[in-house]
Automatic annotation (TrEMBL):
Peptidase C39-like domain segment(s): 51-162
InterPro entries registered for this protein in UniProt: Peptidase_C39-like, Peptidase_C39_single_dom, TPR-like_helical_dom_sf, TPR_rpt
SUPFAM superfamilies given in the database record: TPR-like
NCBIfam families on file: C39_PA2778_fam
Annotated keywords: Signal
Pfam family, one: Peptidase_C39_2
Signal peptide positions (record): 1-36
Organism: Halomonas chromatireducens
Name of the molecule in the record: Tetratricopeptide repeat protein
Length: 315
C-alpha cells in the first residue's frame, strides 16, 4: 500500500468517525417530542405489536427488508429477495419512497403516508399497525438514509421499539429516534388491506392513497376501501363520488346512484357528481330525475358544463 493510499484511507476513516460523532451530538441536543393533549389523554402508556416478522437488513437493502416485514405481517407471502429488484435502485444504493409505495400497491395492500407527526406514529402502533419509518442516520449534508419498522413504544420510558438493521426489537429513545426521523421530514407509512383505514389518517390523505391503489388494482379491489372511507368520513363529498365511480366500474348502477346522491347532498356545487348522477339515472331510465341532475350540472360554470348541456339536448 502506498503512503498516499494509506493517508486516503486514514482520512476516510477519520471523516466517518467525525460524521458519526457529529450525528450523535446533534441527536443529543434534540428535545423529546411532545404529544398533543388529546393524544396524551387517549393513548395507552405502552404498546407492542406481536408477530411482526424480522428480516435482517443487508447493506443498502433496508428498504426491501422493511417492506417485507410489513407485507408479511399482513399475510402477504413475499421474500426480501423478491422485493430487492422491485424497490432497490443500485445507482442510489437504496430504495426511494415512490418505489416503496408502488411495490406495496402491486402486492395488494394500500400504503397510507402518515402526517409527519410523532402523534400519528404512536397512534398507529397502538392500533396494531407496524409503521415503516425513514431516517437519516447521518447529517443533512451527508445523508445516510435508512428504513426501519416501528413496532412498539413505552411512553413512561420514552422509548421506541424498532426492527432495524440487523437488530430485532431495537430500543431507541424518543429523542434520538425523532432527531434522525426529522431529517426525512418524518416520513412514514402503514400498509393495510382495502377495508381498513389507519387510525391517524385524514380524509384527504386517505382519498389520495385509495385513488392511487385503485389505479393499480382496479375498482373491485378498491371498493372496500372507499366504503371504509365514507363510513369514517360520512360528509366527504369526494369520498362518496369516488365510491360511486367504483360501483359504476363494477356494474352496480343502483349503488353508484346512491353514492352520487350522497356526494351532491354534501356539496351542491359538485358539478361532475351531478353530471355522473344524471347520466347514471338516464341509463336506468329515470328520465325526470336525470334531467334535474343534468340541469343542475349545466348551471355550474366549469369544465363539465358543456358536457352536461350536451346531454340535456337528448331530452
Amino acid at each position: 500500500m502506498t503512503a498516499r493510499r494509506f493517508r486516503q484511507l486514514l482520512n476516510a476513516r477519520f471523516a466517518g468517525v467525525l460524521l458519526s460523532a457529529l450525528s450523535m451530538m446533534l441527536a443529543g441536543c434534540a428535545t423529546s417530542p411532545q404529544l398533543a393533549d388529546a393524544t396524551e389523554a387517549s393513548l395507552p402508556m405502552r404498546a407492542n405489536i406481536e408477530g411482526v416478522p424480522f428480516h435482517a437488513q443487508q447493506e443498502y437493502q433496508c428498504g426491501p427488508a422493511s417492506l417485507a416485514m410489513v407485507l408479511n405481517s399482513q399475510g402477504v407471502d413475499v421474500a426480501v429477495d423478491t422485493l430487492i429488484p422491485q424497490v432497490f435502485i443500485p445507482d442510489r444504493e437504496g430504495s426511494v419512497q415512490p418505489e416503496m409505495l408502488a411495490t406495496t400497491r402491486r402486492h395488494g395492500l394500500i400504503p397510507y403516508v402518515l402526517n409527519n407527526s410523532f402523534d400519528a406514529l404512536l397512534i398507529e402502533i397502538a392500533a396494531g399497525h407496524p409503521v415503516v419509518v425513514m431516517q437519516n442516520l447521518a447529517l443533512p449534508a451527508w445523508p445516510m438514509w435508512h428504513y426501519a419498522v416501528a413496532i412498539g413504544y413505552d411512553r413512561e420510558a420514552e422509548e421506541l421499539i424498532l426492527h432495524s438493521g440487523e437488530e430485532p426489537e431495537r430500543i431507541e429513545s424518543f429523542r434520538r429516534f425523532d432527531a434522525t426521523w426529522a431529517r426525512s421530514d418524518r416520513w412514514a407509512f402503514v400498509a393495510l388491506p382495502a377495508g381498513q383505514l389507519p387510525e391517524a389518517i385524514g380524509a384527504y390523505r386517505a382519498l389520495d392513497a385509495i385513488a392511487s391503489f385503485e389505479q393499480v388494482q382496479g375498482a373491485q379491489a378498491a371498493l372496500p376501501a372507499w366504503e371504509a372511507l365514507v363510513s369514517r368520513f360520512p360528509t366527504s363529498a369526494m369520498g362518496h363520488f369516488a365510491l360511486g365511480n367504483a360501483r359504476h366500474g363494477i356494474g352496480d348502477m343502483p349503488g353508484a346512484i346512491d353514492a352520487f346522491r350522497e356526494a351532491v347532498h354534501h356539496d351542491d356545487e359538485f358539478a361532475v357528481a351531478w353530471l355522473n348522477l344524471g347520466l347514471s339515472l338516464k341509463n336506468q331510465g329515470s328520465d325526470e330525475e336525470a334531467q334535474r341532475a343534468l340541469s343542475r350540472a349545466a348551471d355550474i360554470p366549469g369544465q363539465w358544463q358543456a358536457q352536461a348541456q350536451e346531454a340535456l339536448k337528448t331530452y
